[in-house]
Amino acid sequence: MRASTHNLAHKLVRWAFPHLGVILAVLWGAATVTFVAVKLIPGDPVSILSGGENVVDQAERAVLIQQYGLDQPLGVQYGRYLGHALAGNFGKSYQYRQPVISVIAEAAVPTLQLASAAILLALCLAVANALATAGGRRGLRTVLSGFELALLSTPVYWISIVLLTLFSFRLHWFPVTGNDGFASLALPAIALSLPLAALLSQVLRDGLEEALSQPFALTVRTRGVSEIALRVRHGLRHAALAVSTLTGTLLAGILGGSILTETVFGRSGIGQITLQAIKTRDMPLVLGLVMMSALVFVVINLVVDALYLIIDPRLRRAKA
Amino acid sequence: MSVDESALWPLRASTSGAGRRHPWRAPGLLLPLAFVLFLVAAMFAPEWFTALAPDAIDTDAILQPPGPGHWFGTDELGRDLFCRVIYGTSESLTIGVGAMAIACLGGISLGTAASLAPSIVRKLLVRLIDILLAFPELLLALLVIAVLGRGPINTLFAVGLSHIAGYARLVRSQVLLVKLSGYVEHAVTLGEHRWTIIIRHIVPNTIRPLMILATIGVGTSVLAASALSFLGLGVVPPEAEWGALLADGRNFIEIAPWLSLLPATVVAISVISITLLGRRLQVLLARGDVP
Hints:
The structure holds 2 protein chains of 2 kinds.
Chain A: H1 2-40, H2 45-49, H3 58-67, H4 74-86, H5 100-133, H6 138-152, H7 156-170, H8 181-212, H9 215-222, H10 227-252, H11 254-265, H12 270-279, H13 283-311, H14 313-319
Helix pairs in contact in A: 1-13, 5-8, 5-10, 5-12, 5-13, 6-8, 7-8, 7-11, 8-10, 8-11, 10-13, 11-12, 12-13, 13-14
Chain B: H1 27-44, H2 81-116, H3 119-133, H4 137-148, H5 152-179, H6 182-189, H7 194-207, H8 210-230, H9 242-250, H10 258-286
């Protein structure tokens, strides 16, 4: 057992190393694309720095420009930005007058709570749904898959507004807005998780049905194992491969959903500061946020690839 | 928000209830089709459905709940919401179709180039697609809006551009398949010109399976555009675009929930109809059923 764990760790390290190059390439590309976009944004950064409409005199203006390095040629600004970014320093936000990193770190906490609650809920719903409806039972299955289709094309904000109107304004079960505690997390997490659950259910069910039609399923059945045990113990593991990829993609893309849910429910978080940063043209913050989301995307994909090796022992042998 | 990847896993034929009924007369196909036709009619002839003008202000009927006089109620200026939704159809759908067209054209060019260009260019383009895929689509759209500014045309571009990478990846995998097929090999053997092969053989055969996805893409685009407007960064009030109506209505969500709920429901039903229509067609065409 120990040898095999060691072997797995070794494989993981050997496999992760070449991926580092790809990670850096993607991050550099994201940084460059955003830098270009941010420089193309019309408007005077000084007016943002000085709080919008305020009139600043020439001397003050020069100080601000110098302080934020805006007087340098673009090439130099780009080089500095990349160099600092490598060291994890994204500069100071124009709007908050704080280091971008700490602004993001502070906002990340509520968004992480929301995202993990939503994805956990989605996975639970999807597993229960797929286990119950894979193969057979046409009635239940037709109803649920119709429901899935509807959820998949329903705007996240519609679900949010319905939940908010029903449970907060009418029934007063949950607080209307805010960030405190479990009660305020419930509705946004449900709203965010439903479309994810629908997509995951479809993929999980397909995977499960394929697994159940394999010869090994017949073998397990002839051993007299119950249908539930077969599905849970053998089927799920096979279906888990496709689902883990998809979960990764969804988790990386959850920022988009969180912008909408956070807006409807008035929660603070990454989505809110993203929206604010873009509205106020807070360039360092925009750059930092894009880098963060690209990093999250890359890391999650890496973790998912590594999960493949853990879920499916056949891949470990094949790659040796 | 994403290019609907689930569309790649076609529905099982068994769920279309095709056992007894003629497959082309299933309600799962006809209902969405009817709604889409209704939308198209509302797009070109909104006056068929309502006698009111979308910006007619009625100070005697402010924030009235839905009822017989005003099906969807009225807003804070006494404008009839149903009328505004109907008149907003044209703008919302135009943005949806236009954005999808940009996404598809961009995706086809980028995807084809990323699979057929000379080696170095190809590798660079594949990386570029990877990089673009690392951005959440909404974030990419927001960046485009930040550069271009708000407004209907810019919303169309923002949504279209943000979906290019997703289509490009699909097109690339499709081109790589088509490239290996017999007819391409045949054309190469006959000594046809490189560009002739690409334009006459590869691109058309790549696009065909994309058609259904593009139909569903209209729905996705309508959704993305309304989300942008909802966030206050797409089409702005007083225009009657669906997302803008929704954003406007959100200010009154506590006292007049219908103002945001009903336009959002119209968006939801439209997108569901378009998606269902695309998927049913996909299943039926894949089975080779001809009407």
